[in-house]
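ESCALATION

Customer reports they have been waiting on this structure for their group meeting. Please prioritize. Original submission:
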Amino acid sequence: MKKLLLSLALLPLMAIAGNVKSPNGNIELKFSVDQTGRPVYEMSYKGRAVVKPSFLGLELAKDKHASAGLNETDLMDGFSIKDEKLSEFDETWQPVWGETKNIRNHYNELAVTLQQKQRREIIIRFRVYDDGIGLRYEFPQQQNLNYFLIKEEHTEFAMAGDHTAWWLPGDYDTQEQETQECKLSEIREKMKTAVNWGNSSVAVFSPTGVQTSLQMKSSDGLYINIHEAACLDYATMHLELVDAETKALTTKLSGGSNAYTPNPTASKYPLPKPFTFVSHLTPDATGLKGCMQTPCTTPWRTVMVSDDARDMLSNNLILNLNEPCKLEDTSWIHPTKYCGVWWEMIVGRGSWNYTNEFPSIQLENIDWNKVKPNGTHKANNENVKRYIDFAAKNGLDQVLVEGWNVGWEDWANMWKRDVFDFVTPYPDFDIKMLNEYAHSKGVKLLMHHETSSSTQNYERHMEQAFNLMNKYGYDAVKTGYVGDIIPRGDHHYSQSMNNHYLYVVKEAAKHHIMVNAHEATRPTGICRTWPNLVGNESARGTEYEAFGGSNPDHTCILPFTRLQGGPMDYTPGIFVTKLNEWSNNNSWARITIAGSLALYLTMYSPLQMAADLPENYEKFDDAFQFIRDVACDWDESIYLEAEPADYITVARKAKGTNNWFIGGKCDENGHKSTIKLDFLDKGRKYDCTIYADAKDAHYEKNPQAYVITKKVVTAKEVLKLTEAPGGGFAVSLIAK
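Update from on-call: job pushed to the front of the queue and completed.
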């Protein structure tokens, strides 16, 4: 059912303010223009301040090609209100895949048209939901605002206090950092040790810059999250905090080689008060933040709020602010459970490259049939068939094979443009035979395209690469963007790179190919519009368990932050956590086996990997049964308990069935859960299997201790489960 009421109020030219409330009345947004003509908004929740009065606007760069120079005047002040329109919208839509079968999109809207003396107009549109707001700038086509360059966007978020924040260092090129937790006033000091400078590409820009999605909690119990939605043809937004030490000087972080750029708030406009976040866009290679042509819009800037942490996880605001699906036929898009030739290579037991003979290679000059193999290449016929057999035996859909194609010998040279052609296999990878073998077993291979961040090279080969996939029956590709972007000087999250990522998704859709992008920009709900974008990495994933490990609370904060914009290919399922048991790697995963099973529920994704080695799963076959059984697509999801970085418990109903699955994951402190099963069908019985931490389980001391309990339950049952430090539990409820 859909209804749309437009133009409920048309206000006069000199109106000075507009208010709009959420459908349930809990959230109120106020808008005005101050005495200098600067747009101002504020936001409250149940009468409590969420965003105090904050300015809006864009600072424009000088365009030497502009004949009249009109577009050099900033879109910051000198505005008057031309009109305001209020409207209500209410619809229910169904995603191609997701956490729920139906999503309600219900909001009240305020659209304010502002006009400057130069007769330039912009529209600031606010959508107010029961659980948050979205705002964006819109630029109608007009004589005096046609092409313009963005120097910086100045969207402010003035916080009401010194909140606790869970944040990542602001960075133009990587999200593969570990989440920090501290007060807003402590971010500057904590930044000194927060950055992993050893990542393949790092560009930290400020001692108080953080990434979105930013999760916070106020001292009076409000959960607040700032992010963005529908980042299309625009640069990714970061946030820069104004604190007591904010200065206009360029500084450098001790221990790092990346100089900070000048603070965006250090301009001719007044400096905001402390505890104010200001938008900071990712620049392109020239330093510009955006190149725009009207008519156009910015992405939505979002603020979610609730006094219940569970609402942060069940919130669909980001998806709702994106456009509906643009694909007429989505029958070829399907949730996927897979394994792959990957983990043993990440850990260091095998290689992606076929030979060690050359310090560098040029593809056109190598006769690969005459090259001496190194004996450690894992994407070989025998090993891949082993994974295919494992997938077929255990009901997994696909097998990811990395390192199958020529060029890996010197791909880590971050400035090499032409590393791969994406179509030529190594001599020990018979692409035709392996695909036929997989199909005979009811399994597909999952393609891998590591672009080495050479976007022009990938776009040049993309059509023939996708044609090759169609020829052999691949229907999904994992893309990668490791290293600094080529062309040189650009950044992973710039406007041009965001356009590239979307171009890949659109071209893949023409070939009926699903995309799982790694090292790309963080998601902003675009998967609603292009549902063949089934996954992203865009965060510190399981691979870091082989690089020194992640804290046990890492997977208890990601659903509050990274997963707000879309699912993550976290690649869970590590059972043998002490890696030196089967390799020369002394790192270890900080999780129990029961905790690993829980991730298939708490880390939502329609693309789930059983990441460990087949032989490691065979040691714990009874626990692996849960991975065989658990679904990847859902009709209903209920978050039962949650607290950022501490614990999450969720129940999900498998799509098209009456079967439910429950997962609970906790941090290093452990957790006790009491779960009422009153969400089950009344009068129906369920075969219940509980995979829980044993009494002596511990993520460090005893990670493989678990207990499996089976019984029959009804909706009247209450489960009481104890999660070990770094552990969790998983429950399957199969309707009888």
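Sent to customer with the following note: The chain is about 15% helix and 30% strand.
Escalation resolved.
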